């Protein structure tokens, strides 16, 4: 990994040479190859997909299909038909919550992002199901708690592969094994893991997984729901309309097979093509190296933070991002001082209010590195936090 070289591929760092962007868990910056691919698509290949009988439409359809193949290969899906393009992780979760017919209760992590737990809670309310929460232990899902909660009454287990609050890889293998032993359907939130570590859906043996393109160098407005073929086939359409039907009469309608069944209306073709370019870019880097790079920079941030008085680090060792609180300032104030140093971090509840409540905090400051961050960014970040301590100490 050579972040100095990588930075050159990202126009924003030429435009803002002093920027230390450490809010990658929220969204990543885009390499020129991604924005150019989107531009090229609109300028040279733009047409609607799946319907046209002319060359240009065939080319656009082929580009859309190629993007699906790239995404499928990236997560080792069995076939591109297991890849449904959606807007983002949030939409993937809403799709599953609306369309998946399952008996039994729902088990979800208390650390779950609102986008993960709210659609499932809506489903539970509608169908009179119970929602049970796997506890967090030292920043990770507790296997012991999962073991107590998952039983023959469990229908769906939804877990975050990597929490956006703590940044540690969760013990998902063990929890998936427990879920499978009880015949529960497993839904994985891959929003943070797919961008920063190798993820293999076959090896994990998950039934469904959601992630967002914009968190992995791709454009906004494009995300993915992965589903095992038979699971997707068992699901009802989420939205109905053009592009997803086999036939329609005044009395009835029949649906296309997945993935088209879940992609009503004109899809975000340019977004998918851009995501394909992002996947190409990540493949050329090696995801194991991406993982190690994030962990290394995070370890250095954790080490530095632990030397500053009044700071409590919430992320366990080996995390890919760091969340912390300071007893001398509100997380927003820390982020504001960092902003004055041109260090961009996130502060607040990180869309995980139940977890914040459980920790009895009003929020945390979070720094999340990615492929283009350097040790210099880490130093600037630590200097900024030290200055915040000087400003706010009583
Ligand atoms: C773990 C996790 N799940 C879900 C989401 C929701 O992603 P999106 O806003 O792209 O739908 C996020 C976004 O921060 C996340 O970090």
Description:
This protein starts with a helix and ends with a helix. The chain has helices spanning 3-7, 11-15, 32-45, 55-74, 89-99, 114-127, 143-149, 172-181, 193-196, 201-204, 229-234, 269-285, 287-306, 331-340, 353-359, 375-392, and strands at residues 20-21, 83-86, 105-109, 131-134, 136-137, 140-141, 154-160, 185-189, 208-212, 223-227, 245-248, 253-255, 311-313, 322-326, 343-344, 346-348, 364-367. Strand 13 (311-313) and strand 14 form a beta hairpin. The protein has a 7-stranded mixed β-sheet with strand order 2-10-9-8-7-3-4, with helices on both faces. Strands 13-14-17-16 form a 4-stranded antiparallel β-sheet, with helices on one face. Helix content is 44%, strand content 16%. It folds into 2 domains: 3-22 and 286-392, Aspartate Aminotransferase, domain 1; 33-284, Type I PLP-dependent aspartate aminotransferase-like (Major domain) (Aspartate Aminotransferase, domain 2, 3-Layer(aba) Sandwich), CATH 3.40.640. Helix 4 (55-74) packs across helix 12, helix 5 (89-99) packs parallel to helix 6 and helix 14 packs across helix 16 (375-392). It is of the alpha/beta class and 394 residues long. It contains 16 helices and 17 strands. The structure holds pyridoxal-5'-phosphate. Pyridoxal-5'-phosphate is lined by residues 25-26, 88-90, 113, 115-116, 160, 164, 189, 191-192, 212. Residues 25-26, 88-90, 113, 115-116, 160, 164, 189, 191-192, 212 line the site of pyridoxal-5'-phosphate.
